[in-house]
Design the sequence.
Protein backbone atom coordinates (compact mmCIF):
# COMPACT_ATOMS: atom_id res chain seq x y z
CA UNK A 1 0.00 0.00 0.00
CA UNK A 2 1.61 3.22 -1.20
CA UNK A 3 0.61 6.67 0.05
CA UNK A 4 0.70 8.25 -3.42
CA UNK A 5 -1.57 5.53 -4.81
CA UNK A 6 -3.96 5.88 -1.85
CA UNK A 7 -4.22 9.66 -2.31
CA UNK A 8 -5.06 9.10 -5.99
CA UNK A 9 -7.81 6.58 -5.19
CA UNK A 10 -9.15 8.83 -2.41
CA UNK A 11 -9.29 11.84 -4.77
CA UNK A 12 -11.26 9.77 -7.30
CA UNK A 13 -14.10 9.49 -4.77
CA UNK A 14 -14.88 13.18 -5.28
CA UNK A 15 -16.95 14.28 -8.29
CA UNK A 16 -16.67 18.07 -8.04
CA UNK A 17 -13.34 18.55 -6.27
CA UNK A 18 -10.26 18.87 -8.47
CA UNK A 19 -8.00 15.89 -7.69
CA UNK A 20 -4.97 18.20 -7.63
CA UNK A 21 -6.47 19.87 -4.52
CA UNK A 22 -6.21 16.65 -2.55
CA UNK A 23 -2.80 15.92 -1.08
CA UNK A 24 -1.59 13.73 1.79
CA UNK A 25 -1.86 16.64 4.23
CA UNK A 26 -5.36 17.72 3.11
CA UNK A 27 -7.85 18.06 5.98
CA UNK A 28 -10.51 16.15 4.10
CA UNK A 29 -13.37 16.90 6.53
CA UNK A 30 -13.06 20.56 5.48
CA UNK A 31 -13.64 19.84 1.77
CA UNK A 32 -17.02 21.16 0.60
CA UNK A 33 -17.89 17.87 -1.03
CA UNK A 34 -17.01 15.70 2.00
CA UNK A 35 -19.98 13.86 3.47
CA UNK A 36 -21.40 10.51 4.43
CA UNK A 37 -21.57 9.28 0.83
CA UNK A 38 -17.83 9.80 0.34
CA UNK A 39 -17.17 8.26 3.77
CA UNK A 40 -18.99 5.17 2.52
CA UNK A 41 -16.74 5.31 -0.54
CA UNK A 42 -13.68 5.30 1.73
CA UNK A 43 -15.02 2.21 3.51
CA UNK A 44 -15.56 0.51 0.14
CA UNK A 45 -12.13 1.65 -1.11
CA UNK A 46 -10.40 0.16 1.94
CA UNK A 47 -12.24 -3.13 1.46
CA UNK A 48 -11.96 -3.53 -2.32
CA UNK A 49 -8.47 -2.16 -2.97
CA UNK A 50 -6.72 -3.18 0.24
CA UNK A 51 -8.86 -5.92 1.82
CA UNK A 52 -9.12 -3.89 5.04
CA UNK A 53 -12.15 -2.89 7.11
CA UNK A 54 -12.48 0.65 8.48
CA UNK A 55 -15.38 2.09 10.45
CA UNK A 56 -17.06 5.46 10.26
CA UNK A 57 -15.79 6.19 13.77
CA UNK A 58 -12.20 5.56 12.63
CA UNK A 59 -12.68 7.83 9.60
CA UNK A 60 -14.10 10.56 11.83
CA UNK A 61 -11.02 10.33 14.08
CA UNK A 62 -8.71 11.07 11.13
CA UNK A 63 -7.92 14.67 10.24
CA UNK A 64 -5.86 14.37 7.07
CA UNK A 65 -5.65 11.97 4.15
CA UNK A 66 -2.34 10.63 5.49
CA UNK A 67 -4.02 9.92 8.85
CA UNK A 68 -6.62 7.90 6.96
CA UNK A 69 -3.88 6.11 5.04
CA UNK A 70 -2.08 5.15 8.27
CA UNK A 71 -5.32 3.97 9.88
CA UNK A 72 -6.08 1.66 6.97
CA UNK A 73 -2.45 0.51 6.58
CA UNK A 74 -2.24 -0.42 10.27
CA UNK A 75 -5.07 -2.96 9.96
Sequence:
Amino acid sequence: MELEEFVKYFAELFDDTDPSEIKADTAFHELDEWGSLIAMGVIALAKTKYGKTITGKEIKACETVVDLYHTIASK
